[in-house]
Predict the structure.
Amino acid sequence: MPESRYPITAELYSPPISSRLSATPLCLYFSYFMHRGVNSRLSVYTLDNSNTSAELWTRRGHAMKTWRVDFVQIDSASGPFQVICELFSF
């Protein structure tokens, strides 16, 4: 795939996660592949009912041209929340 001159932005939202399921910490386990320029950023956030977001994990720049595996702990929440994965690349 040729390099683009235009920025790429993508967001992936989970369905709402019940606070009953998040009474104890949860673990999000995921794979990612970053092969674009040094201006790439991949982030994982949580978003609660009051639209407050909290950044849990971020990687910037090249992560080598290979699949990587990572995980992030999501601490207990007082209400339903969503997990958001966001990619920005230029």
